[in-house]
Amino acid sequence: PIPQEQQITDFTFPDEYSDTTAIIVTPTIKLVKVAPVTYPQYNSLTEQIQGPTYNTATDPIGVSYTVVDRSLEAAKSDLKNTLAAIRYNRETSGTKVTIQGKEVSVDTGRGDDRNIWFQSFMLLPDGQTQQFKFPKEQVWLDLTKSDIGTIVQAIMLHIQSAFEWESTEAAKIDAVTTKADLNALESEIKGAQ
Predict the structure, then answer these.
(1) pLDDT of residue 1
(2) What's the pTM value of the predicted model, to 2 decimals?
(3) Is the dihedral of CA 183, 187, 192, 193 positive or negative?
(4) pLDDT band at 6, cuts 50/70/90?
């Protein structure tokens, strides 16, 4: 059971309240105002906020957060996750290829849009053509097996380039020994999007 002094029996909350003093509900229960929370600025890669901490000696009650360092290894891990997301966007962003004297856009997204080229290359008999519309350029071309091979090669080079870039940047992350260097590398990586 709740002790008698903590029981709220006939308290009515006011409809409006603008005073800064506490509302006394019971001798041990008070409703007090809390100051607006201001979050400190921090670098989310190498720092984090800790808290909140409440200062009950002030009226209204103060709320604060403290900026604390994250471990270098945790920051490196997060930057590698960001790196992978940027690589994925690069990988799937599409590429340009020149076919029959025309520069056309080719989808490099994962799934059917990319796989159609590999399937077409494998299934199209030598000496036959396949008509294809490149939607961005609004161009129809009768593609030979050689044309499709050129497209497949461009797709593979584009994808490989994205993974090689990620591998190079991941090695740079692994080599970093200070948070300042990691922050500089983060700017470089995000600038390469």
Answers:
(1) 67
(2) 0.77
(3) positive
(4) low
